[in-house]
Structure formats: structure tokens, C-alpha cells
Amino acid sequence: PTNSLSLSLSLSLSSSSLSHRIQRLKPTTEQSHFTTPKKKKKTFNLYFLLNPTLCKKISVCSIPISLHVISLSFSLSPQKMDVWSPSVAMDDEFEKLLIRMNPPRVTVDNASSRKATLIKVDSANKHGSLLEVVQVLTDLDLITRRAYISSDGEWFMDVFHVTDQNGNKLSEDDVADRIQQSLGPRSRGSFRSLRRSVGLVQSADENTTIELTGRDRPGLLSEVFAVLADLKCNVAAAEVWTHNSRMASVVYITDEATGAPIDDPDRLGKIKQLLLYVLKGDRDRRSANTAVSVGSTHKDRRLHQMMYADRDYDVEEDVEEENGNRPLVTVENCLEKGYTVVNLRCGDRPKLLFDTVCTLTDMQYVVYHATIIAEGPEAYQEYYIRHIDGSPISSEAERQRVINCLEAAIKRRTSEGIRLELCCEDRVGLLSDVTRIFRENGLAVSRAEVTTRGDQAVNAFYVTDASGHPSVKTETIEAVRKEIGLAVLRVKEEAYSSSPPAQEHGKFSLGNLFRTRSEKFLYNLGLIKSCT
């Protein structure tokens, strides 16, 4: 009928293999050959790839289908345009349909390289896919030595050269399964807008999560843990970052008496009020707002989001980095292909790839191609990016903001100070006592990692002097160790140096370094040409 929805299904056959892509055409006013040409209608076309296994079971006129495209066309008359409209729900269903018909293919190759295990990922592309893969590798404590990333339309192909923390090839068998699970259909609950200041979210598992942001100062962490101890809250785990005079922390707490999550609204309100009072201090008004968090996000990603929302990347132009400790980041446009090329060079460390990819993703940039090299003390990264709307960086202000944000993302986790490792039997108030001793001896905590394994507390603190300088007198460290316990508090030498790469004269351009490597790789795939 003319005034109703008309739906048709056709199979496109081809003797040659079709490209792994989806084309979603914009609505047109052209007349569809599937409808009666009495009234002008909007025509929509959707093309998507059939699962090869499903195609093998289908035949048309005795012609087997190996890899083909289903084309759906449907028309809507002007009077019935409200029958179909773009929505988040429809986008989600389309995304789930796509992923089910084109599940990610992950292979783990231990034979091609003597030094590393190759993890190859092919999957339908979506915003955030690269971050999800990198996040899984990071959560498995894998070190990425090299990576080659490329996407063609709606399909992406990644190759990661990884080792374990000791530089050995992998022996686990579940890496591929975990990556495939991470790329499965997802809800949009994990990508809510940024939340501010002090937030509380009830964990679905065992803890209540507290998010804190505020001005960093000596003794702040001690005051936070003291408040939680006074309110009968046990800290099961926590992560604390500081950068550019700002502090962000995610703390997981339980009730001291029951060990269960805290869900009493009045009690949560009191916790928020007292923590907010501590964070504001005498002069800080930037952390005066509070919000209750909804949903959950990966801890490290959430910390990046919190610091970004707190604008820790804002740096005065006349402020010089001490000892040249600033990462080298360049951002240039590749006019021929419509990309923005981001080159990055800094000292290598664990989770560096996650930090940069996370920042680009949350800034709404899409990584189309990339080359990562981190086989020595320095790391080199090159990204071909566009904004999520398909456009490259178009202004000097935006270019400078990308540079500042990437520099901040790298430095948030850069280890400054002496690493002290605390391993002992866990007890209520342990963190309050330890951080109080740090404060009384003139030490400030620049970063902290707090975990609980069974009945054991396994914590790491990076401490500086009260002024933030990483050089701390040996006598001070030994005095702290004696007070806490020489057997439970140890000084740990970092395996990864946080020292910056040697400065070079002249203009830095990482693109020249990658030209023969990344472009050769991408050129062989037929994806790009030289940007020169």
C-alpha cells in the first residue's frame, strides 16, 4: 500500500570477494523501484555483510553464496515518517546485528616472531574498538612492543607484538577469548557524560566506589583515609593520581563491620559531605560540586576522564618543564588524505599505549591508522586521526589542546619520586596510619596503588618531599621504614625509567622516523599513500 511501510530484501551476488565494510546511505528523495510511484517518499538503504558460515547454507538458483551482501531497502511516505526515526536503541540493535554476523576474529601467533607473541584482531569497526582491545591487553599486564593499526571503512585490522612483564612470549590460552568478549555487543551505559568532583556509585559486585578530585597538597591523602576510617569504612582498593597541582582518586570501600557495600543514603551523604570539606581545604573552590555517579567505567579510563574534566592539562605558556621532562608531541595535517597526523615520543613505560589511545578516544577522535614502536627505553607512536565527524583538526587552538592533553595523559601516570611497597596483613585504618606517618615525616604522595589480596594488603606509594621534588633524603626514608616496619615497607627500584628522551636540536618530527615503517606497512595494504 502507498501509505504504509514497504520492506524488500534482495541478495547481491558476486563472483569476487566483497570488501569487509558496511555502507549506510543517507536518505534520498529518489523513487524506490520497490514502491508504487504515486507519492514522493524517503528511501533508506542498508548494506551489511553476511556471516560466511551462514552464506554457505544459502543458495539462489543453485548458485552457492560464499561471501555476499544483503541489501535492505524500505520506503516511508511523508505522512508516515514518524514510523521510523534514528534512535540510540536502533543504532544499538544495528550494531549488535553487525557484530553477530561479523564476530571479531582474534588469533594468537607464537611462531612468527622469536621475541614476541603476535595478536591479530580483525573486527567490525566502531568508535572505541581500538581502546577496548588495548584495554584488555593492559588488564592482562601485557607489554606492547610493536603495533600496527589500520581501518578500512567499517572494518579494522590490528597486529600487536606483546610480551609479559618479564619480556617473555605468552603462554596463556585465554587472551583471544577475552579480546573477543570485549568486542561483543555493548550497551551505551559505559559511555555516559563525565561526572564531576566527588561521586558515589554502588558497585554491582562487592564495593562502593568513591571518586575524588581536588587540589593536590601535602597530607591530602592522609586526611581522606582518616575520614574514611572515622566513618567505619574499610578501603579495599584505591588508585590515586596527581598532576599539575590536581588530584584524582578512585577508592573502593566496604562497611567495616559487615564487609558489604555501603548503600544507606544518609551515610553516603555524610561521607560525601566530609570528603568534600577535606578536598576544598581553605582555598580550593574548583572541587565544590558533587555528583552521584551512574554506571561504571574502567578504573584507569575513569581517572583520565576525571583529570581531563578537571582541566589538569591547562599549563601556563611561560612555565618550563624541569630537566626537559616534557614528552615530545607534534600534530600536523596530512592534506592529501584528510588526516591529522599525531607523532609522539617519550620514555617508555607500562600502559603508555592505553593512556594515549584512551585520551584520543575520549576527546572524540578516531584512530584510522597507527604505528607503535616501544622496543627500547623510548616509545614512538604515530596516529592518523580524524574527529568523530570525519574532519581533521581545523584550528590552531584545537591542535594545541590535543598536544596539551596527550602530554598530560602521559605524565599523569609517570612515576615521580621514590616507590615504596607495603605488604602486610590488612586491617582497618592501615592506610590512615601509613599516610599519616608519611605526612609527619614531610613526605607527599604523588601516586598510589592500593590493592587487597585475600587478607594481605599490597600497596605501592610514590613519595616526594613536601615541595614535590623527587629527591628525598635517605635518612627520611629509613626513618619512615623503621616506624612502619622494615620488613613490610621496602624501597623498590623501578624497572622502567621515567627519565625523558635525550633532547635533539632542531624541529622534532616523528613522521620522518616512521615514514619508512608505517607508510610501507599501510601502503602494502593499499590504504594510504605518502603524506609528503
From TrEMBL:
SUPFAM superfamilies: ACT-like
GO molecular function: amino acid binding
Record domain ACT: where: 118-199, 209-286, 419-494
PROSITE patterns given in the database record: ACT (PS51671)
Pfam family, one: ACT
Keywords for the protein's UniProt record, in alphabetical order: Repeat
Purpose: Binds amino acids.
Annotated protein name in UniProt: ACT domain-containing protein ACR
Organism: Linum tenue
Upper classification of the organism: Eukaryota, Viridiplantae, Streptophyta, Embryophyta, Tracheophyta
